Amino acid sequence: MESNIPNSTSYYSDTPQKSLMDRIGGYLVEFFQTLVVFGAIFAGIYLFVAQFHKVQGNSMVPTFHTGDYLITEKISYRFRDPKLGEIVVLKNPRDESQDFIKRVIAVPGDTIRISGNTVYLNDQPLQEEYLPPGTPTPAGAFLTEGAVVKAASNQYFVIGDNREHSSDSREWGAVTKKEIIGKAFFRYFPIPVIGILTDK
For 28, 105, 138, 142, which has the most beta carbons within 10 A of its beta carbon? Predict the structure, then answer.
């Protein structure tokens, strides 16, 4: 009498099971790859598109106050020059580790003079609707009282809105377009004043 003995067959995977450590290592590699990608994107944005800034100091009061957070866009000035009245962020000409925020008051070809606490642009009083009426503008070590200075090619004169408490072109002269980081574009804090910035 024959006995039927069923065949016992074992199946083996061609790929060995990954250990827990291998799986963790794989997740870590993917995580760091993702970080690198996002880091590269952020670096590209920071270098070529926009930069975040926090206002420190009172040189732009009443337009900005200490603790205001801004986005500075860097695209516009790649295609055009800064314009009169625009608010710009620039490197401190005396310490490039610091950034300043100021307003453009003269562009290449303009003549500028400070006389009797008033700014004269091309021999006419500069119309500055963004300042409280009667705001005095004292002269400085560079833009001395009554002296007429012409902005040469690629030169810009910048002054803080808080005229009596600002280190600016009155003290250290003109800046070049290369020193200007970008245009102040958007204020995202504090909440009551969130919005796109204007030059008025």
Answer: 105
Alpha-carbon gap, residue 151 to 157, rounded angstroms: 7
**Token pair of 183 as six digits:** 């245009």
CATH number, position 137:
2.10.109.10
Angle at 136 between CA 174 and CA 147, to 5 degrees: 45
**DSSP state for residue 145 in the 8-state scheme:** B
CA geometry: angle at 18 spanning 14 and 24, to 5°?
155
What Cα–Cα distance (Å) separates residue 84 from each residue in 11, 19, 27, 88, 111?
A: 79, 66, 53, 11, 13
Kindly report the pTM of this predicted structure: 0.79
Q: Which domain holds residue 68?
A: 51-196
Q: Is residue 25 part of a domain?
A: no
Is residue 98 assigned to a domain? yes
Domain assignment present for 16: no
Q: Annotated catalytic sites, by residue? A: 59, 102
The domain total for the chain is 1
CB neighbour class for 52 (10 Å; exposed up to 12, middle 13-18, buried from 19): exposed
Instruction: Name the amino acid, one letter, at 25.
Output: G
pLDDT tens-digit map of 129-181: 999 999 999 999 999 999 999 999 999 999 999 999 999 999 999 999 999 99
> Does a structural domain hold residue 42?
no
